[in-house]
Amino acid sequence: MMTGSPMQSVAGETHDAPASIYVAPSLASALDALREFGAAGAAFAGGTWIMRSPIRHERLKPHYVAIGKIAELTTVRIDSDAIEIGAAVTHAALAAALADHAEFAVLVDAAGRSANPAIRAMATIGGNLATSEFAAADCVPALLCLEAQVEMSARDGRERIGLAHFLKIRSSLPPGHLVTRIILPRAARRSAHARLPLRKSGDYPVAIVSLSVSIDAAGRVQAARVAVGSVEPVARRWERLEAALIGRPLDAAEAAQTAAALADEFVGRDSVDAPAWYRVSVLPGLVRRAAIAALGS
Hints:
alpha+beta, Uridine Diphospho-n-acetylenolpyruvylglucosamine Reductase, domain 2, Uridine Diphospho-n-acetylenolpyruvylglucosamine Reductase, domain 3, Enolase-like, domain 1, 5-stranded antiparallel beta sheet, 4-stranded mixed beta sheet, 11 helices, 13 strands, globular, carbon-monoxide oxygenase activity, FAD, flavoprotein, CO_DH_flav_C
């Protein structure tokens, strides 16, 4: 425990003793605490995943470092060439901040429709990225479409890496590292987010397709990024479909047909809410929906 740190207890039924939470007043103090706690500590922002650990029969950490009051982590900065999103920005705040920026429609939709209003008011963008066990995170495929970079901080400095690489290494990051910002380059693009929940209210999606395209003066796709989430354990880009879209007009029906021909590259995950085959089978329909939405943006 950090000497002289303001602490409060958090009960956890799977823990031998109450956990403790340190409310960090600054990023430097948060990084100090995370380094001191090591593997016994973790960051706590919205807490929507951590607080349900007992339901998943997972042990709580002995110590948490609350980062939700750190100003630089709760800010969205909009510049002419890039947008910087603090890791503790909530889904609801993110959707509101970018609502008037059509180029980020895919992220506005992902953040603004995830889970339910209560969760969106608490869940943070950094938590969405850092929780490796959560395959159905809406914002991850949306950010993959937007060429997102992730800034990680530790007491010895900061590092910026591409989101796809971050997703590969996030579960093996050494203690003391914290996602602090997400950086998105600005570009002329059309984008859309399509998700399929089993029911309409509050469900995790069975499958997600996020789409971003740049269209030239002749109406042809100049650049394309398609990402799939919730189908496999980790969201990823659909690069073969991207390549098939480039150089042609974006047609929703043709895009769906192409997706159907290429969908066998996915190995769906089985779970209590949906079988693996079903997750893969709905992808062409989601591609069609995303293309229609992008064309209308």
